[in-house]
Amino acid sequence: MSTDPNRRDFIYIAAGAGAAGAVVMTLFPLIGQMNPAADTLALASIEYDLSKVTEGQQVVIKWRSKPLFVRYRTPKEIKEAQDVDIKTLRDPQTDAQRVKAGHEQYLIVVGVCTHLGCVPNFGLGEYGGWLCPCHGSVYDTSGRIRQGPAPLNLLVPDYTFLTDTKIKVG
User: For position 124, what pLDDT does the model report?
Assistant: First the structure.
């Protein structure tokens, strides 16, 4: 029986290193399987060319399985949205907070009513914006709630302008 402390220490260190390596090799695929799938990541952000939208037109595109309203507002709609006294709003936000500076003509909102998740229709209601047909929530030309049971404005997603006419949402 050997009483050489150096040889015993080497065996303990080698066994510990092997056990640590086995734990890492076990955890690595376990943690890796928690990452989102590639098809999910592909849907997380989209790019859209705004030159396809003409003044006064709204385009609906699908983003994260929800409708995304891309509206090219007229100067009259922009003026109406900017002239609103935000003290009168249920969810106070200025029009400038809902659009990007220098691109005020483009309003991009998630087209889901904040009451129960219906899809509002454009061009209906007394404020020139959207009307939810389910329970009568009325949004103005900036997507802010003006009447009805919806508690919040239409959601403005995170987006950036890649060029003057191209955006990336998400």
Answer: 81
